[in-house]
Design goal:
This protein is of the alpha/beta class. 47% of the residues lie in helices and 16% in strands. α1 links the parallel β3 and β4. α9 packs antiparallel against α10. The longest helix is centred in the middle third of the chain and has 20 residues. It is globular, with a radius of gyration of 19 Å. The chain starts with a strand and ends in a 9-residue tail after the last helix.
Length: 270
């Protein structure tokens, strides 16, 4: 089932497309190929609607985020931002972007970025905000704001939580493109694929995740991001409680029983 999401901003055409399949995979595609999928205010508002829809849809188990046309996302729509120089518009744009990134991280559904072409600035921020990243071997990444006199301060937030401090600062201070291979070596990308195998690899990965208990996926994703910035003692206290609560659920008991009985589990997502 394909669903077009109308933009609330100045875009004329639908800037986001949602396609859901029978496996519970929702494909959210940025549809501004004419602008290299730059994140206009309207596009970001549409992405927020898309993630809200997918996150609340019980039939959706995994979300794949992609870009149409020649690349993933070129970052903020700088032409739009320059055409609205007033501070209120700039603040609204940056606030909406932050809300979008948090919506991805806080979604109960795992989110996979499918990257081809380039992902720059806020586009790189989108990638860093996703849970997993699969990239075309020819893809490139950059936080090039430094070259424009505009430090990529907000892309820095998820980037610095994905790679080492030295790697993050290298990208932010130089503003150069890095290859998909380099991004993989830095731990920014999970899997690499030849261009003609990208869709297949993403579909296989998404299908494997979709086969798990959605209750367990939600529990684990939430716990991961909650514990990551705690000190180790607090993290153990928090995750210990999460695990005990998880053990009390139907799906955990079903999964253990199925393992002991050497059969496939039957999830009830509770």
């Amino acid at each position: 089932m394909t669903q077009d999401i109308d933009t609330k901003g100045p875009d004329i055409n639908n800037s986001v497309i949602i396609d859901k399949n029978e496996l519970g995979i929702a494909y959210v595609t940025i549809n501004r190929a004419h602008a290299y999928n730059a994140l206009s205010l309207g596009c970001m508002q549409s992405l927020l609607t898309a993630f809200s829809d997918c996150s609340s849809d019980a039939s959706v188990r995994v979300i794949v985020l992609a870009g149409s046309g020649k690349g993933f996302c070129a970052g903020h729509d700088l032409a739009e931002m320059r055409s609205h120089p007033e501070r209120t518009f700039q603040q609204q744009t940056i606030d909406t972007c932050a809300t979008l990134m948090l919506a991805i991280t806080q979604s109960p559904k795992p989110v996979i970025a499918k990257v081809h072409g380039v992902a720059t600035a806020a586009g790189c921020q989108l990638v860093a905000s996703c849970d997993l990243v699969v990239a075309d071997k020819r893809a490139r990444f950059a936080t090039p704001g430094i070259n424009l006199g505009l430090f990529c301060s907000t892309p820095m937030v998820p980037l610095s939580r994905n790679v080492s401090k030295k790697h993050a600062m290298e990208m932010l201070l130089l503003g150069d493109f890095i290859s998909a291979q380099r991004a993989y070596e830095m731990g920014f990308v999970n899997r690499l694929a030849p261009a003609d195998q990208l869709n297949q690899l993403v579909d296989e990965l998404a299908a494997k995740i979709a086969s798990k208990s959605s209750m367990t996926l939600k529990t684990g994703k939430q716990a991961f991001y909650q514990q990551i910035d705690k000190n180790i003692s607090e993290a153990y206290d928090y995750c210990g409680q999460v695990m005990v609560d998880n053990m009390m659920t139907h799906d955990a008991q079903e999964g253990i029983d199925a393992f002991i009985a050497k059969r496939d589990p039957v999830w009830q997502d509770k």
